[in-house]
Amino acid sequence: MKQLFSCLIALTTLISGCGESGPPSGTLTGVVTYKGKPLPTGTITFVPQAEETPFAYAEIEEDGSYVAETPDVGSSVEVGSYKVMISAVKDTGPESPVIPLIPDKYSSDQSSGLSAEVSEGENTANFTLE
């Protein structure tokens, strides 16, 4: 019985140690500025060029910094090329429309002209908006 138990433990350890750790990924951080100043709010979305690669996103902090995340994975982004879109608005209350803080062209990955390349390890992508 003791041998069977030892074999089960060894088999469980072997199985849990096997399998893929996922596709290659890296971290992606940076700063977004608009007209020379940190953009104090907004969201940034990284649209992958490869179909099977998931989107990544980040909330822009008050100092303009961001840390990209991938849903269901956390603070890593799959290696690859991404088009980038950034949205930032000022909420003026429930009765008023939101006020865009940056030009509309940045809110589409097709018109923003922004991109990022992610490789394994640490990556930095700063975006200067005009």
Main attributes of the structure:
single chain, about 130 residues, mainly beta, Immunoglobulin-like, six-stranded mixed β-sheet, 1 helix, disordered N terminus
Could you give a quick summary of the protein structure above?
The protein is mainly beta.
Outline the secondary-structure elements.
Layout: H1 2-17, E1 25-34, E2 37-38, E3 43-48, E4 56-59, E5 65-67, E6 77-78, E7 80-87, E8 89-90, E9 99-100, E10 114-118, E11 121-124, E12 127-129
Parallel strand pairs: 1-11, 1-12
Antiparallel strand pairs: 1-2, 1-5, 1-6, 3-4, 3-7, 7-10, 8-9
Task: Write structural notes for this entry.
It is a single chain. This protein has 130 residues and is mostly beta strands. It has one domain (27-129): Immunoglobulin-like (Sandwich), CATH 2.60.40. It has one helix spanning 2-17, and strands at residues 25-34, 37-38, 43-48, 56-59, 65-67, 77-78, 80-87, 89-90, 99-100, 114-118, 121-124, 127-129. The strands form 3 sheets. Strands 1, 2, 5, 6, 11 and 12 form a 6-stranded mixed beta sheet that branches. It has a 4-stranded antiparallel beta sheet with strand order 4-3-7-10, with no helix packed on it. Strands 8-9 form a two-stranded antiparallel ribbon. The longest helix is centred in the first third of the chain and has 16 residues, at 2-17. The protein starts with a helix and ends with a strand. Mean pLDDT is 87; it is low at 1-19.
